[in-house]
Amino acid sequence: MTDFAAIKENARKMWSTFAAFETVTGLAAPELVKFAGVQKGDHVLDVGCGTGVVAVTAAQLGARVTASDLTPELVTRARENSAISGFDIDFQIADVEQLPYENDKFDFVLSQFGHMFAPRAELAVAEMLRVLKPGGVIAFSTWPPELLTGRLFILTGKYGSPPPAGVSSPVDWGKVEVIRERLGEKVKHISFHRAQYGNPAMSPSHMRILLEKYIGPVTAVVKRLEEDNPDKLTLFRSEVDVLLGEYFENNTVIQSYLMTRGIKL
Ligand SMILES: C[S@@+](CC[C@H](N)C(=O)[O-])C[C@H]1O[C@@H](n2cnc3c(N)ncnc32)[C@H](O)[C@@H]1O
Asked: What is the pTM of this model?
């Protein structure tokens, strides 16, 4: 039987180094907040909030913001970011599969590249919809399988161990047909929009080194191959460099993604 507690413990460790990427995901945050339609006074929940880039951006618009994430180190950083920005955001350590909020509480439930990493997609979406008011907006950004980050996760999966039974693939959250099915009958007026941000890097290999250092799923595969199969690691690194090269332009790696918005019935 799949040990979901162990999966969550591993996820906490994997994501603990993600803060280094807050300046780039910070570029995507205003896009999601605008696309969702957040306005002054709205009560917003940001799940899988990481270092709080979406939460702080929504607070900047005058929203009342609550946010949570599985990884304690990131929540600590999110609290610092909120304090630096001068906002009073309620941050908690919480799993999106089991949110510590009452039913029908929020006007908006947002997630930027966050809930897509919950191992049980159906639980994550059920919880996000449970805490959203009827008529409220669910909106999220995800990385589709055919674009850079999705392709990187697929490549990383190819070199890593296969996922345990019952674990959803994060990149399935980037497929419009899967999203429609998961949101199901409870959500109306579903719309999609693609956007992109740039990650400064002197070369594809510079970008790869950053990924190896700070993006947990990549770090884990590199560590394993370093120990078990150095030749395979060389192959992995060259495949990653080729992939990143496809998206490299003007010393920037372009990362496109999908935004989804819908209204709870
Ligand atoms: C790619 S980071 C995105 C963070 C942030 N939203 C941003 O845009 O910078 C993925 C985040 O999902 C969080 N996460 C992974 N599994 C989770 C779960 N089951 N419940 C809540 N958060 C989770 C990680 O801790 C991490 O902060």
From this structure: 0.97
